[in-house]
Amino acid sequence: MGNCTTVDNKFDPTIAISVNDFESKYPIGRGGFGRVWKVIHKKSGQLFAMKEMRKDLIVSKRSVNSIMNERRLLGILKHPFLVNLHYAFQNLENLYLVIDLMVGGDFRYYLVKHRNINEDHLKFLCACIISGLEYLHTNNIIHRDIKPENLVFDKNGYIHITDFGIARMATAENSTTTSGTPGYMAPEVLCNQDHGIPADYFALGVIMYECITHFRPYIGKTRKEIRDSVLAKQVQLHLRDNSELSNEVVDFVNRLIQRKPENRLGFHGADELKTHKFFKDFDWEELYNKQMKSPFVIDEENNFDYDHVMKRWEPTKEKISAHNSQKLFAGYLYDATLFNIQKP
């Protein structure tokens, strides 16, 4: 990968890129710490998405490590099926990430609008996710929060993986770093056990199961209830007699949602998924080169819930001083134009 970063331990706002280098058009998304804006880089005229995050919210929610982890990983990752970083900077109040603009919105928004997804859609969706995960796993990184909200469409209907806040290097012992979204968390993560790349493939299986049945295989209102559901029995997908889906996709999903990681498709790597009969005759090279026509048609420019985006945050009493700001967020600065970053 390589460490493609420049740090701002001696941050000088007079020479570094800043929010003033961008013209904000309008908000297009919302996260836990701030909004995402559609912006234009004034000098180049290029369109980006800019993630604006309030430092007081980050500190009050004890999420500094997660935010800095995402920035670090984005600085060393670059791939056609990820949402890539172009700039990162800060001022006293906020952190900013300038990333690829994904005009198609996230997959959760798409699922709400389109209840029925056929097998061609499932295959293309899955192939895009596998392509991004294969790159991450080859670089020894587990995403750990694969879910519809973290999958976003570009203008051509290709899916990209985003949000690396809880991604981690795959290490021998990581049972104490169990976090994620319970409905998509692998059993080994829910049960505070060591986990590796098969955890991401379990989440992929949950997404596909959800696309087919409109609910997740293991459900509950709390993490404990979901864990109990997982421990109670091994769920398997069964199609109705009038289903138009093939036995191949059923087998594919059922092997992804296996509770034991050693029984799960992908335990030995992405090739296990790519060579499954579900992908028989699938042209992976055409997909990688973005020459394949996506079955997902992006027919609106602004694919997001405006009311959700404009919701206000709860007030916080956290105060960020200039000294604490630099201490907590030192090294955040990034400018991709300063590096000759090689494409994968």
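[next item in queue]
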Amino acid sequence: MAITIHRKLASIVEEIDRTEFAELVRLSVLKKWFERPGRLTAFALWIAEQAATGEAPASEPEAALLAQARALLEEIQARGDLNARAMWELHGRLEAFQPDYRSLSWGRVRLVNSHALMLIEDALTICLRHPDDPRLGYKLAADYCGHYDARYGRNLNGPSRDRVQEIVEFVARREADENAFPHATSMLGAGFRVWS
């Protein structure tokens, strides 16, 4: 019997419980799961929703962008489809909010002031440009779950455990929806249950 994605993800949570951390690469099991049409877009929208409703913003401009993201996600849910024009507009504002890069010896890195806004921007990038690239889904999951701790470096530790558990629950809900509507394909995710 094949090991399910639920079991593989649950084993990450168990490893964090047992050893206090797990390697980020363990989330790569999601790549295969994202190969089914609609799942990556649904996951990206779900991550955007998590980021938009998470921690309190540090500044007024960040708060305004988070409010715009929440409004867009609510509109997508109400309409039942992706509003590409509004998504592109918000994506542009998110890019403009964090435009700074630093050159290091091994390449350029982006300076991120708001992790939540970066997650939303990356989620919109997936929806608008790369809805069929499972690697970007894995990267988004790693960026959502990854946590830096001086003892372990940047990997799955501390608050990562709860975020991996949230992904386990998202996957279960998504698969339940797919089983309930086996001949439908969804552009949207958990909380976004409109089928086309």
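[queue empty]
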